[in-house]
Each structure stands twice: as structure tokens, then as C-alpha cells.
């Protein structure tokens, strides 16, 4: 992916210089929006962003930057959903190694409604298409966060709504899949 300009923003794959800013966006989201803060068993990647995303050949972190400040993140890794807390059938459907999982799709509130999340997700999905072995792109979201459900329904197909079964500890978790796009080289 080449860098993409969206007005005064730049969307690009992260480098080591973006780690501190990306971590700040993620932690602020956990504490200010999710209201549960940092949970080590859920957020272990945030401690080692560089090792988890920047240096790992099958993972990526896409950032939105304005005036040198990271204002949005989208991560992709090769781990499928973990059981528990997610249903066993999802862990079996989306196995680690063959699944590209989207996560950490966050934009600071004052920078929303500029198309940044959509551009970062598209860049992450294009990355997944360029990596051999990915068969699906999976994500889950907390639809209790304003705008999350509508955003994901505009990009992805629902595969399971945990609200219907009460699974996942009462959080409004909905699981989605996005088709792996055709690699750019195959489109020519």
C-alpha cells in the first residue's frame, strides 16, 4: 500500500516512530470509551506493538496521522478468535494462521467522520490479500459503542451475534467476516 492522503490526514502502515502514538490511541480507547481499561489477557499486543505488528511479516498496523500525531489505528494479525470467551464454533471456523483478524480499529473522537477507519480497514484487508495463507478476514466488535455496528455492517457480513445467546459476558459482541480481496497483482 502506498500512503493515502485524506484531506490533512495520511493513512499508512506504521513504523517504529508510530508505536507510542498508536499505543496512546489504543489505551485511551480502552479507558475512555470502553470503560474497562487495559485488560492484559485481551490487550497483550498493546505492550509490544512493534514486535506484534511492525516487525511481524504476517501482521500489520495501519495508522492515520495528522501533523505527525497518530489519531487512528487498525491492526491485523494471524490469530483467530479464542475460545473462551468466544464460542468454540467461531474458533474452529476461523483458525489461527489461516485467519486474518482485524482489531484495534480506533479513531480519536475529534478526528471521526473523515473516512479514516474505512481507509485503514481497506489498507489492512489489502495487506491480508498480499500475504500467502489467509483464507478469511474476521473481526468482532462491541456494538454498544456508538457507530460501531453500522460501520461494520457497511463493510462486513455478520456471522454471529453473541447478544442473542448471552455469550461473551454480556458485552454487545457481534462477529463479522470480510472477504479477502483479490491481490492487487491479479486485478491488472
C-alpha end-to-end distance:
15 Å
Strand content: 25-35%
The helical percent reads: 25-40%
Shape: globular
Low-confidence stretches: none
Radius of gyration over alpha carbons? Answer: 16 Å
Mean pLDDT: 92
Helix/strand/pairing category:
alpha+beta
Order of helical and strand elements: EEHHHEEHEHEHEEH
What's the count of strands? 8
Total helical elements: 7
Report the sheet with the most strands, covering strand number, pairing sense and barrel closure. 8 strands, mixed
Largest beta sheet: what is the strand line-up? 1-2-3-4-5-6-8-7
Summarize the structure in words:
- This protein has an eight-stranded mixed sheet, sandwiched between helices.
- It has helices spanning about 20-35, 40-45, 50-55, 90-95, 115-130, 150-155, 185; strands at about 5, 10-15, 60-65, 70-75, 100-105, 135-140, 155-160, 175-180.
- It is of the alpha+beta class and about 190 residues long.
- The model has no long low-confidence stretch (mean pLDDT about 90).
Write out key terms for the chains shown.
single chain; 188 residues; alpha+beta; eight-stranded mixed sheet; 7 helices; globular
Blueprint (SSEs and pairs):
Layout: E1 4-6, E2 9-13, H1 19-33, H2 40-47, H3 49-54, E3 60-66, E4 69-77, H4 88-93, E5 99-107, H5 116-130, E6 136-142, H6 148-153, E7 157-161, E8 173-178, H7 184-187
Parallel strand pairs: 5-6
Antiparallel strand pairs: 1-2, 2-3, 3-4, 4-5, 6-8, 7-8
Task: Please give a quick description of this structure.
Helix content is 32%, strand content 27%.
Amino acid at each position: 500500500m502506498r500512503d493515502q492522503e485524506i484531506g490533512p490526514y495520511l493513512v499508512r502502515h506504521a513504523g517504529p516512530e508510530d508505536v507510542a502514538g498508536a499505543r496512546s490511541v489504543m489505551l485511551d480507547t480502552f479507558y475512555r470509551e470502553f470503560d474497562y481499561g487495559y485488560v492484559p489477557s485481551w490487550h497483550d499486543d498493546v505492550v509490544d506493538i512493534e514486535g506484534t505488528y511492525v516487525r511481524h511479516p504476517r501482521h500489520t498496523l495501519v495508522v492515520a496521522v495528522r501533523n505527525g500525531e497518530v489519531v487512528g489505528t487498525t491492526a491485523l494479525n494471524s490469530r483467530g478468535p479464542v475460545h473462551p470467551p468466544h464460542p468454540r464454533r467461531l474458533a474452529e471456523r476461523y483458525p489461527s494462521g489461516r485467519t486474518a483478524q482485524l482489531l484495534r480499529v480506533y479513531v480519536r473522537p475529534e478526528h471521526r467522520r473523515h473516512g479514516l477507519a474505512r481507509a485503514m480497514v481497506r489498507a489492512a484487508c489489502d495487506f491480508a490479500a498480499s500475504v500467502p495463507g489467509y483464507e478469511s478476514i474476521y473481526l468482532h466488535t462491541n456494538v454498544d459503542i456508538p457507530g460501531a455496528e453500522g460501520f461494520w455492517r457497511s463493510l462486513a457480513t455478520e456471522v454471529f451475534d453473541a447478544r442473542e445467546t448471552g455469550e461473551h459476558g454480556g458485552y454487545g459482541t457481534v462477529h463479522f467476516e470480510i472477504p479477502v480481496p483479490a491481490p492487487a497483482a491479479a486485478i491488472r
